[in-house]
What we know:
The protein is built from three helices and ten strands. By secondary structure, it is of the alpha+beta class. It starts with 11 loop residues before the first helix and ends with a helix. 32% of the residues lie in helices and 26% in strands. It has two domains: 12-85, Helix Hairpins; 92-221, Immunoglobulin-like, CATH 2.60.40. It has a five-stranded mixed β-sheet with strand order 3-2-1-5-8, with no helix packed on it. Strands 4-10-9-6-7 form a five-stranded mixed β-sheet. GO terms for molecular function: copper ion binding; cytochrome-c oxidase activity; oxidoreductase activity. Residues 1-88 form the Cytochrome oxidase subunit II transmembrane region profile domain.
Amino acid sequence: PFQLGFQDATSPIMEELLHFHDHTLMIVFLISSLVLYIISSMLTTKLTHTSTMDAQEVETIWTILPAIILILIALPSLRILYMMDEINNPSLTVKTMGHQWYWSYEYTDYEDLTFDSYMIPTSDLKPGELRLLEVDNRVVLPMEMTIRMLISSEDVLHSWAVPSLGLKTDAIPGRLNQTTLVASRPGLYYGQCSEICGSNHSFMPIVLELVPLKHFEEWSAS
């Protein structure tokens, strides 16, 4: 509602990121409430506690407590960071190349399965299609399988990002970055180039079509 939160999670990694976001946000909320209460109480009362102004116990508490809070944030953050970098025997590899201003895809496990993916102009959209997000060739992938994405660029910096899968990897000329995705449910998932790569930067949409393995095999054979 009102597009205030994240998109619904489609991968286990994105679910973990959502939980970590809620965990951190609650800590920030509690700290902000405490600070606001202390500031308001200082401004609204004339009473002062002289022994508190120079107390070793208070200084010890407000030194150790922030350290504990930072550890409570850092540990789950590092855990998710290592989970995102983990690659376990991918079943399929897809190479993504960024161009000005479109994406090209190559299914490296197949002999001749490559295509370019351009945004559909607004004038050519069909009823129900999303403006600035639809493409002429969708990336069809099997769900519930580990897929490795190899990401690079032909010209300038791009960034291949699909928020509902928790993916965002830079496409850098002369460098091959990789990321993995596992989709837990079928559907259409949209993303865009997340790097300011030029005048048509906002017209580089990404559409992933996650389907059961049987349908993917039929699509790849056709």
